[in-house]
Amino acid sequence: MTSVYMRVRETIEHYVVAICDEGLLGKTLRQGNIQFKVSEEFYGGELVDIETCMEHIRRATIVNMIGKVTVDAAIKAGIVHEQAVIYIEGHPHAQWVKL
User: Fold this and answer.
1) Which residues lie closer than 8 Å to 62 by C-beta, 6 or more apart?
2) Domains, the chain, ranges and CATH?
3) Which run of H or E residues covers position 46?
4) What does pTM read for this prediction?
5) Calpha distance 23→60 (Å, rounded)
């Protein structure tokens, strides 16, 4: 079973899901002008299996994800298009908003 960190924030208007691969939490990734902090405050919710994570993503209105396990699972599920992925220090990152 593969685990990822997931934090869910729910408001009246949005269901926000932030997910990162377990090994990325707390790191700062740098590439060119990009400095991307995989912060505990934003991503560090529960450590969950990828299937649980996908259930929350399907409900989400806003998703932010970083890491190979997370992004690959979202691509495989048809939730993220592979051409919408950017790479920071070799780590895939995707985000989307459902309007």
Assistant:
1) 14, 15, 16, 17, 95, 96, 97, 98
2) 3-97 (3.30.1860.10)
3) strand 46-49
4) 0.91
5) 23
| Tens-level pLDDT at each residue, the chain (99 residues) | 678 999 999 999 999 999 999 999 999 999 999 899 999 999 998 999 999 988 999 899 999 999 999 999 999 989 899 999 999 999 999 998 887
Short-list 89, 47, 52, 39, CA closest to 68: 89
Q: Residue 99: what pLDDT? A: 79
DSSP string, 7-48: EEEE-SS-EEEEEEEGGGTT-EEEETTEEEE--HHHH-SEEE
Interior CA angle at 95 toward 53 and 16, to 5°? 55
Element (H, E) at 30: strand 28-31
Asked if 23 and 3 count as a contact pair (C-beta separation under 8 A), the reply is no
